[in-house]
């Protein structure tokens, strides 16, 4: 079984994020869910984004994993996926990465550096999500796959962002069930 760190999205550690983690835990995995916002949650992405600018998320993510073994699976949703990707690429010993609705490029100005050899990745998002599909994340995910990395991209029909969070109105249970099935299969093989 894997040890996973699941970083929440910009709305905070919502009950929907913890429910997603619980689904992975039910399969026998250890899942840590650090809370960058100290219990605060937000109703809109702009509100959460504005709040997140008031602190250093890199430092919070680094502190959240400091006491964990190096061979963890880094997972994250949207904003949290950025931290998961950064740590998977820069913290030696990463076991794998699960990036939900985000992917940074592996070359150029926004890159954390090259993708580390031997670190598999899964990237999930909706095919018409304004952030994932239309702001470059999907292109970055495809770049990662094309680089020869052990990476897979899974697209779901729809335009919802944060679709796997059951506490939000845009929750898509069908897409989330398939996402969970795919992630659990991935965790079983890494």
TrEMBL record:
Q: Which ranges carry the Dienelactone hydrolase domain?
A: 3-189
Lineage, top-rank taxon, reads Bacteria
Whether Hydrolase counts among this entry's keywords is: yes
Keywords, alphabetical: Hydrolase
The yes or no answer to whether the keyword Transit peptide is present is no
Question: Which GO MF terms are attached to this record?
Answer: hydrolase activity
Q: What InterPro entries does the record point to?
A: AB_hydrolase_fold (IPR029058), Dienelactn_hydro (IPR002925), Dienelactone_hydrolase-like (IPR051049)
Name the chain's protein.
Answer: Dienelactone hydrolase
Q: Identify the taxonomic lineage of the organism of origin.
A: Bacteria, Bacillati, Actinomycetota, Actinomycetes, Micrococcales
